[in-house]
Amino acid sequence: MSRPRFLAPALIAGASILFASQLAAQASSDLQLSLVPTVAVPIGPTLEDGLPFYGIGGGGGLEGELVPGFLPFTMLRFGVDAELLPINRSEGGLTLVAAGGGLGARLRAGARFTFKAWGGGGIYMGMVEAGTVRNPFWEAGAGIGLRLGPTLELTLGGRYRDFLTPTGSLYRGVSIAAGVGYDLAGARKGGSIRMEPSLRPIFPLFYTWYDDNPAGELVLRNDESSPLEKVKVSFEVKQYMDGPRVCAELPRLAPGASASVPVFALFNDQIFRVTEGTKSAGEIVVEYFYLGSARTARYPVTVTVNNRNAMTWDDDRKAAAFVAAKNPLVLAFSKSVASAARRTGSGTATTEIRTALGLLEALRVHGLGYVVDPATPYEKLAESDTAVDFLQFPQQTLAYKAGDCDDLSVLYAALLEAAGIRSAFVLVPGHVYVAFDSGLSPDAARRLFANPSEWVEREGTAWIPVEVTLVADGFLKSWRTGAREWREAERDATLAFFETRKAWELYEPVGIADEGVAVMLPDSARVQAAYEAELARFVSDQTSGRIAALTAAIGSGGGSEVDLNRLGILYAQFGQYDEAEARFVEALGRRENLASLVNLGNISYLRDESREAVGWYERALKLSPESGVALLGLARALYELEDFSALESAVAKLKAVSPELAARLELPGASTARASDAAEKEIDTWTE
pTM, whole model, 2 decimals? Predict the structure, then answer.
């Protein structure tokens, strides 16, 4: 054979070994050494009679595979091995010692299996009794590897080899090999997991909110050549957490794959002591298995913690978290006013309206004032979803006796909620104020209020808007201004409305310790006087014009029972029962009519004259046996009298006549205290 026949394999072997030595130092490369025992099956040459020149032999060797990090589908092979082949029809044998290298390709199948194919060559030394020869060889092979772990691999494969001489082949054959490989880089493998955290500033007010809502995100990327399994991500800020919070568990992260993981946190109440913005050390921990081996990666992070009064207006409902209605100072302030409102003016409008009026008047007497914070004005900060605002807690505003529109709204909403009145926030461009549930249905509100534009219907309830920043001007002006702002914003489609209690479902209210904040409750006598004066103005404002108009109509028309009845209802809705009774009786004098009979029953019921009330309702039912309002009134009065057998009959008939009215009948069980002993009686079924 000519020299070019074996020169090319020699050059390939030399270049492969040189290239492998250069790449072996790269940290991203895999370098595996394997001990490989072999069985050699000769193919040629043969004797003249066709008998193979060599018999089946065997041997072993040390092989290396280098997988460069930038070409994971390729490999460089190098190694040295020895095989002994018996010579047929002879007592001697051929010993082959070979060293070489080559290039190959790899294909992964799952996490642990690898298919390989390669070609290459090198130099061999052949030894027999007659002497020794040195020449090149070439080979081609294929195999499969099974990873037992990051460092160990079982290998099985076969290769074809041709040991060349200048005149032909010294030996041609197939070697079958099974061995164990050790990855020199395996001990450090499994650590190539990339973490890119993105944490948002923490707002202490919402410290429980972060348990269900992410404080940021973490992007995980597997830069390994094998998948990561049973991946668990945890987050901890030791200063403000009792332990790590498990954020996510991923069953598998494929090679080269990325996953975005939300970062949750379960903070303790220590974070609520942060009164100035600060930074704290945190840590993200990723635990996982790499080829069956447990690994842990840690990533230190810096966590920005805002002061406890901070919030952003990206979600307006967050303000509800400041509405600490259970704070002792708030409860004391609210309950004292609510008690007075229940005692004084009973029967005027509703308990909710009188209490809301009394609370605003108490704040006025307390000296509360509207002061724009130049550092964090709401009208500017509300325009940005990321700007940090400073909101005061209710007891802070009571102590400071001043606040921005958002501070005053938070305080008023907290006082309303402490009194058991549903509150809501009304947001218009650059401003926020409060509305409260009047306790009236829309139909009842239409009868009660003189101006239909001064209350708002929301989901079957009449709400009263109150511009809290005008607290110094009293309830009436605050109410009218709030209603006007509502109409203007609604016309321009710039109004937002959310109920405090519904917002609490997402942003739980948080209270802070008073920490020495002293609040002197306003003088009760002054509060009572202010409440009574404003209540009188409210009654006059709502009734004087209508009373004059109805009185004039009655005077000019001879006093029809319809007008007399309407006038009686107007008096009754504002607690003037004697005037109301006189008009209803006068209306009956004109003509026996259902409306006046029912309304007289209502007056007796409100005066706790239940037996007289039953008489009026029964008289109404004789006139109109199917009257739902008469049956409703009768049921209430019978309950007061504890006549439960008659009550059962009245309720059954009411359900048959008017299921809607029957649904409005709320009576405790017969064994409990009567309704009149538990709460103020109110009637919203005045009949025209």
Answer: 0.72
